[in-house]
Amino acid sequence: MSKYRPTKFHSPDNGRATRIARFAATTTASAYLYPMSILRMQPQVDIHALITNPLHVPRLAFSSVSPPPLFCLSHQRDLYFKLQALYWTINFFLFTSSGIMNFGLERIHSLLEALNRPDEHTQIVHVAGTNGKGSVCAYISSVLRTCGYTVGRFNSPHLIEPRDSINVNGQAISQSLYDEAFAHVHQLNTNGAIGASSFECLVGAAFYVFGKAQLDFVVLEVGLGGLLDATNAIRHPAMTVITAIGLDHAHILGHTIEEIASAKAGIMKPGCPVVIAPQDTSSVLATLTHHADRTGSPYTLVQPSEFIQPNICQLDFDQVHYTYPIRLIGDYQRMNSATAVTALDWMYRLKLIEMTPEQLATGMQETRWPGRLDWVNDPVLLDNYGLKQILVDGAHNPPATVALRKYIDSLDRKRVVWIIGSTAGKDLHDMMKQLIRKEDVVYAVSFSLPAGMPWIKSSLPSDIAKEAHMAQSVECCTGLDEALVKAGSICTENDVAVLCGSLYLVADLYPTCAIHTCAAKKSVAAISPQEKPRTNLNVIDFFHPSLSSTLFHYTLNLGVSGYPKAGKPVEQLDDSNIYSSVQVGDDAYFKRQDALGVADGVGGWRSHKGANPALYSRKLMHYAQVELDRIKTNVRPQQLQAKADPVQVLESAYHMTTLDAQNEGIVGSTTACIVILCQDELRIANLGDCGVSVIRRNDYIFRSEEQQHSFNFPYQLGTASFDSPNDAQQFTVKIEEGDIVILGSDGLFDNLYDDEILEEVQNCIDQQTTTTTNNNTDGKNNGEKEDQNSMLHHIAPQTISDALAWRAKIVSEDPDNPSSPFQVRAMHEGLYYQGGKADDISVIVAIVKKDEQPPEPSPPPLP
């Protein structure tokens, strides 16, 4: 399966992409209209009409006339992101693995039946709404636990890791349990030919966990909408709750706020009590109560509680007086907490639970809900950036931004120093209008791609900055780290630092806090596998200056192996002797004792006349090698530390490659990873889905993450791509003698799991050390054994690279291989895929050893 190139609307199936493009053209906002001449779309279908009147949509195809590149006009960029987000949102929630878009609940019902209906063996509180769903779920769960009940909670999307969505008794489930649940559900989905979507599988996995735990209650948050959301497959909830409703996901749920309210009211069931939170518009309230009357659902309207003291609420409900403290801040928590208390009170009156006023007060006070008006004052994190504290809020729609600004105004600070990121497609103009004042300072950032959610795309910092023009100062930052540094440099006691705009940006901050906390206590090598962060592993944070020690100089002992994609010969490049890089199919690489690089030409270009992704990748690696030679020739050795920047090397190489492409008419694009060894650290720039790992004593101390716009559509440099070298992930990894560095194209990492790579590495070490020991005649006494670092001097890295490349090749060519990383990711996207991924395979293995001739130290300054 070739990777996608950025020339048209991307999806695993052009027919599916066409359907979504058609749907997008009928949404209310004019920004979602895509020119008919661009996509050659067939007659339009109204999304909302499909949701309210479910249909099977016939498969369509693009016109035989290829559409022009999507990126031909700058204003189309934001539109592309909106279409991309719309496609992946619908794909995640509604597309079956067979590619049919079916807005029904049949598949999730079939999945729950296959799981023996675990939802029928617990009492469920079902919560829908636009804002406040998470807080209400957290309040109810906390109080129920305080009352002695076992409680599961399902929220989406996850905050940091996918397993965060599934919570049992106040804790996210373990990664091993999450993997077990998803594997079980995937097997049922496949064996039963159910064809469930990714979100339906996630809901099924949650109920697998809840059923296994035999819980008293499950608090279930709706994913999208209500009526046709997978969570609505439950048949007998104990209670339903509707929180505040506003305009969000209008392109899917409806043209008006009343239509959105109708979709969310779809969770109401005959005879099941409904708690309805206060609403901003009377028409929404009328819609909800009408739906309750029509379905025969008894309902109660929540009365907002009042703050009688800071963070102490009072609620009078049906002749009962409740007073309770809350830790969650913000005026809107009066309504959220009152909604939760009203639901709990009704459950008590219905004798569903036993609860005392003291238990309610304790449970409300102990409720935590990260990312919503959350003051972060982690001392290690904030001291590093010069900030005493930072206010974190995931506000991303109009009601939430209004509430955030209202709370900030109550603080009576001189100005706000904003760090803002947003999901592409959001109304940035309205958001900035609500948040920014003329005395404020804005640092615009992007967030990293959240794990398992390829439909999410970050807005460009430049787009945010454009809409924040009313601020005193606006600046685009390359990442969150830079924004925090700059915010800390200007914040005074009269200012307030605020990070907001997206929960995905919040998710980038929280692991940083955890990593800094670990760094203060122990090095990464000392952290057990269970403790290692599984995402956003920016290893530079583990090596705070306070932890630095003796400086070593190292070099790399190298081995390289590779295989072109089987069955599809690639034209070899002419005059190959002029390049300092090596071609492997569409891959290319260079290697030196102080630097490595690999690039993977995007094979999706091969259908385009005149395209040559192999030449594009090879030129990029050639010019990276040239730039490194230039640096080493022109820079004094003692200055190399400051000059060895892999992003700058990639920028220079890309600039030269682009000039060649323009002059020679080359069309193509490529992913890339460059690693530079500088004294005792590796400096890494990775863009796309190549990868680099560092192994120490048969365990990973570092593993880069792939960057994907969507499934099998990686970040890439080249024709028609918006990505640039500055989009590359940057890492700095402290190394030791004997560390094993593995750099590879995705042909390696798509076909071999991490533990399989470890297994091959260790097998090679064991075989070679055994041979060396048996042949050792140097007279060691008393069975003395060399330690692994000493033995690695005898290891040929070529042996390891050969073993890895060969094993990846075997998997890639086996259509019946039972499992591969690429297959698992495809299945998570609701796509059927069997076997390994046929692709070019390039592997570079480097073993770190001490440099016998390190550069001379800098001369002393002249008097």
TrEMBL record:
Name the Gene3D superfamilies for this protein: Mur ligase, C-terminal domain, Mur-like, catalytic domain, PPM-type phosphatase domain
Q: Kindly name one Pfam family recorded for this protein.
A: Mur_ligase_C
Which species does the entry assign this protein to? Mucor ambiguus
The family assignment reads: Belongs to the folylpolyglutamate synthase family.
Q: Would I find DNA damage among this entry's keywords?
A: no
Residue ranges of every copy of the PPM-type phosphatase domain listed in the record: 565-848
The cellular component terms of Gene Ontology attached to this UniProt record, alphabetical and capped at eight, are: cytosol; mitochondrion
One GO molecular function term? dihydrofolate synthase activity
Under which name does UniProt file this protein? Folylpolyglutamate synthase
Give me the stretches of Low complexity compositional bias: 768-780
Q: Where is this region: Disordered?
A: 768-787
UniProt cross-references to PROSITE patterns, sorted A to Z:
FOLYLPOLYGLU_SYNT_1 (PS01011), PPM_2 (PS51746)
NCBIfam families in the record, alphabetically?
Answer: folC (TIGR01499)
Q: Which UniProt keywords apply?
A: ATP-binding, Ligase, Magnesium, Metal-binding, Nucleotide-binding
Q: Does the keyword Transport apply?
A: no
Q: Which SMART domains match?
A: PP2C_SIG, PP2Cc
